[in-house]
Amino acid sequence: MQLALDTAQLYIPDNAAETEALARTTHLGIAAHQDDLEIMAFEGILACFQQPDRWFTGVIVTNGAGSARAGVYADYTDEAMVSVRRVEQKKAAFVGEYAAQFLLDHGSGAVKDASSTVVVEDLVRILEATKPDCVYTHNLADKHDTHVGVTLKLVEALRRAKGVNVKKLYGCEVWRDLDWMIDDDKVAFDTSAHENLQAALLGVFDSQIAGGKRYDLATLGRRRANATYHASHGVDESTGTIFAMDLTPLVTDPGLDPLDYVQAYVGRFAEEVTARFGKLRG
Ligand SMILES: [Zn+2]
Questions:
Q1: Cα of 205 from ligand 1 centre, angstroms
Q2: Model confidence over 169-214: pLDDT tens digits?
Q3: How far is the CA of 171 from the centre of ligand 1 (A)?
């Protein structure tokens, strides 16, 4: 497949032919950085793991050049970090038995520039080649500009892509969890299964963890906390939960503004807080 940048890569862990590898995709994860998919989209990875009729394809939009580095990576140049992070993402794709893994290699500037269309064009090509049922990306209330930028590019790509019929689009948790959403708004994915696989998928990103940022422990801890704090009554039914914001209406209604859509979630949260005061103060 021709992508915008010559340095973009497509890795197919089981060496299937490209067209076939992409066409088998049922679940597609699109994220800003290497390791974001394993943090936020484990539901999709798990849904496809060891399932002959379901396949997860990953897309990483940026090159990871600006990532922090410490320990054995402290003296790495930007180019060396890009290379390390690519290898790490391919390790995850292999461990998670992905159908395919795209590394689009864009700078974060292209993601954050509203007038740039290169990322949208790459995503349109990928959507048309994979025709997924279910898509995972960043949620619109994330606090990382590049994350929200990827989601905005993806929404535009989904509105432009031809012959693609996405049934569900989920915005998931990385930089900021979704515990704040009112319970009726939460999509809760049960991630109790395969804790060993979860640990392995998070653990391959050594360059991110080596500096003392324990994303592996923090992510598993968040899943555990979500499961326990989701309901205040009764015993825990699951040992891991990932929350998501259902972004499907942004696909089915092309006129819906993503800002209005996320503001409505914030509004319902504000209303819930206010209503409790109304009750308690009489
Ligand atoms: Zn990220």
A1: 12
A2: 999 999 999 999 999 999 999 999 999 999 999 999 999 998 778 9
A3: 13
